[in-house]
Each structure stands twice: as structure tokens, then as C-alpha cells.
Amino acid sequence: MNETVRLFTEDGKRLDGRSFDQMRKVRMEVGVLDKCDGSAYIELGKTKIFAAVYGPKEAHPRHLAQPHRAILNCRYHMATFSVSDRKPAGMTRREIELTKVIKEGLETLIFLEEFPRSAIDVFIEIIQADAGTRTAGITAASLALADAGIPMMDLCAGIAVGKVQGKLVLDPSEEEDKYGEADMPIAIAPRINSIVLLQLNGRLTIDEFKEALSLARRGIESLYELQRKALKNKFAGIEEPEVE
Amino acid sequence: MAESRPSRALVLPGDKLCIIEEFIPKHGAKALQTGDVVATVIGQPEYFHKKHEVSVKPLKDVEKLRVGDIVLCEVRDAQEKLAGCSIIAKNGKRLKNEWSGAILQTPTPLTIGDIVVAKIIDEVAGTYTLTINERGLGIVMAFCDKCGYQLRQGRSGLICSRCRKTYRKKIVPYYGNINKIAEMFGLQSAASLVRSNGG
After folding, report:
1. Within a 13 Å sphere around the CA of A38, how many CA atoms are in the beta-carbon half?
2. With 50 as the cut, is the pLDDT of residue A13 above it?
3. A109, A230, B53, B139: which one has the fewest Cβ atoms less than 10 Å from its Cβ?
4. How far apart are CA A64 and CA B109, in angstroms?
5. Paired sense of beta strands B24-25 and B53-58, if any
6. What pTM was estimated for this model as a whole?
7. Which domains does chain A have, with CATH numbers?
């Protein structure tokens, strides 16, 4: 089946004209929502995501509060209109799983022990999905947390690497994801050199894995620079703290 | 006071400020296992050379209550020694989120529904202890426990103008002046205080 689908052009480029190590067009913005403490918007090709952070606030229900640290509540959710067929409004098994992996990834970066008995809520809402939503989601969530003033060890950025017709490609598109042999989403905090999320669907050899990792690192470095630029765009003009 | 060298540079979480041998990390900075001191928030770094300390002055700080803050709170639960309360505003600013606390009871006890100006005297792992046993602190608005009507200040204490019941409570000099309370704590309308208590 995969043999019949052409995912590369005759000159070796991908169907959307990108080379194998090229990402889709990225756009990031910080502080896009009014009512939350921190927010971010990211566009990765046709994927469009909002992330919002509320807190730290008192943990509810109270029995969930931890006496020595804050709890991180995360919600990755795809809007009903985010995909071509209408998606049911509730949380699917996939969304529950992605919520868990994103939460565990972010927890390693946040200094939760600074806010005992508190809760930090992170909402990731997928407005339009076109592959790479979990990695773009964690990238946006990291920006929103920084925007909210939550103390973090580092920002983190994520990107996927796919294996398509035997070739490794950075940031696979929807078609490449669908017809490819493997897909490896990865999120890294570059300054502290820590992998916060790594999943692998399909099979890669050890050499392919190493190559995929270095390919992802290169993509994440450029995403990280864009994150920094987005934050600096918002905060460069502010002189005084908003809250004492 | 130690000399500080404020920098106009903007640092982001993860930016290296120095190494642990040079400066001790304070607010907005942390030492990693590698020995690097990094910024944890967005802000401007400040180096205190005499104290050998580095901190980051945040451009957007999180809402956090600290010991010494004067807060406005509503009594939710009254017991013999403590009264549970919700803290709704601090130091002239409305809080985005309500926090729970416990006020130490005075000889004239607080009752459910009292709106109180108190001071945070202790914080242990996110549990706040407050007091009204200082000058300028006390009840700013109270309600009759019999009929729920707002109490007014009389000669011998607080009095309910509907059922004539009298109360002795520690009140502030501007008791009942809801406009002043609203102004002091950055509330858009003091009517919300009255409405929530049915007065």
C-alpha cells in the first residue's frame, strides 16, 4: 500500500516542497488571551494551537493538594472542528494519553515545590489539527507557563521526526504521518539538555534513532530561538512588574 | 546595603546568569546540578556583589501571599480558637483567585459572614494564619446572625436595625463604609460583598 503512495517528488523533495530536514512554517505569539495568567498561540503549518495557564491558585478539590508542592493540571483537547470529520466534544483516549505525557513532560521543568498546596492549570486547545499537535502543544504550553511567570528550569520545544519510505523527515505532514513507517515526537529543554517527551510509533534501527534524534535537535534549536523571540517581543517594552 | 548591579538585559527561563561559585541564587534564580545558576523567570538580573547574591527581578510575578500582607477576607467557618476565611484581596489589590486562611479568634469572636481586614502573620506550606489583633485591623462589615441584616455601628457596639440585637466585635474605624473598603482593596463594586452575604 505504501509503495503506491508517492510522498516525494522526482527531485527528492517532499510533496509540500520541503527538504527532508525542513520544518513547516512556524508562528508563535505570547499573551494572546485576556483572562488567563499566561497564554500562547502557535501555528505549525496548518496546525493551530492555543495554550492557556491559570494559577498558581488554591488546589480544588482540597484533598488533592500536596503539602510540599503544587499540582499541575493539564488538558490537551482538540476542538470539535479541528479535524475534517467532526470530533466528539469529550476527551478521547488519545487526548487523555497526550494530556498525561505533556503533563509529565512539563512537571520536570516547573519548580512546583515553590507553591505548596496550590494548583497550576494548563489548557492546550487544538483549533486546527494537521499533524504534530502534541509537540506544538507542549511548545505552546511552555511559552504560556513562562508568560504566566511560573518559575521554570528552561523552556521546552517539541518536534516530530518521521520515517517515510525509508527516509527520515523532520516535522512530518499529515500524509507523511499517515503513510509513513515510523513517527517519533520528541520535546527537549535545550539549555539543560533534557528530553522531556519521547514517543516512538513504528520501528527505527539504532542508527536511524540516533539520526532522528540529531535531526530533532536541530529543529528544536530553531523552535527554541523562535520561542525566545516571541517572549522578548512581549516583554522587551515592560519596565515594571505587573504584580508586586 | 549591598551594592547591586541591575542589568537592563532581559533574561528568560534557562538563561545562564553565573556559576554557583560566583553568586548565590536568590529570587528568580536557581542552581543546577552542573553548577550553573540559571534564571527561572522572565526579568532583569540583579547582581549583589557584596553579598555575592544574584536574583532576577520578574517582569510578571505570580500572585502569592506573603507574611505581613494586609488582606481582606470573608469568614467562612467560625470555631472557638480559629475562624476559617477566604482571602479575597491584598494590599489594595483584588486577588484573581481566593485563598483559604485561618484567623486567630479574639475575645469578641468572629462569626460566619464577617468581612475582615487582617494581617498574615504566618505561612507554613501554603497554610496562612492571620490576625486582627493589631491596630487598624478588624471587621469592616458584619451581618446579624439572627436575621442576616447588615449591622450598623451604634454607641454600645454593633446593632441590627431590623431585630435590634446587639453585638460586641473588634471593628475598624471606617466600619460599614463600603466605598472606602472598595477603594482600599481595588474592588470594582462593594455591592458584591453585600450581595454575597444577603445584607
Report:
1. 28
2. yes
3. B53
4. 31
5. parallel
6. 0.89
7. 16-233 (3.30.230.70)
The answer to whether the bond into B25 is cis (omega within 30° of 0) is no
State the pLDDT confidence band at A241, using cuts at 50, 70 and 90: very low
pLDDT class of B101 with cuts at 50, 70, 90: very high
What residues of chain A lie within 8 A of the CB of B62, using their CB?
37, 55-56, 115, 148-150, 243
Give the max Cα distance, chain B: 70
Contacts of A96 (CB under 8 A, 6+ apart): none
Instruction: Name the 3-class secondary structure at B44.
Output: strand
Q: Check A115 against B64: CB less than 8 A apart.
A: yes
DSSP state of A109: T
**Percentage of residues in chain A having pLDDT higher than 90:** 85
According to DSSP, the β-strands at A71-78 and A118-128 are: parallel
Nearest CA of chain B to the CA of A145: how many Å? 10
Q: Which amino acid is at A99?
A: T
Q: Give the one of B14, B62, B127 whose C-beta lies nearest to A155's C-beta.
A: B14
Contacts of A155 in chain B (CB under 8 A): 12-14
Per DSSP, what are the bridge partners of residue A169? Answer: A162
What cell does A173 get? 505532514
Residue-wise pLDDT tens digits, A38-78: 999 999 999 999 999 998 999 999 899 999 999 999 999 99
pLDDT digits (tens, 9 = 90+) for A73-123: 999 999 999 999 999 999 999 999 999 999 999 999 999 999 999 999 999
Position B199: which residue type? G
Count Cβ neighbours within 10 Å for each residue of A13-25 and write b for 16 or more, e otherwise.
ebeeebebeebbe
Distances (CA, A) of B11 to A49, A194, B67, B130: 26, 20, 28, 36
Cell numbers representing residue A28 in the block:
508563535
Query: How distant is the Cα of A1 from the closest Cα of chain B, in angstroms?
Result: 46
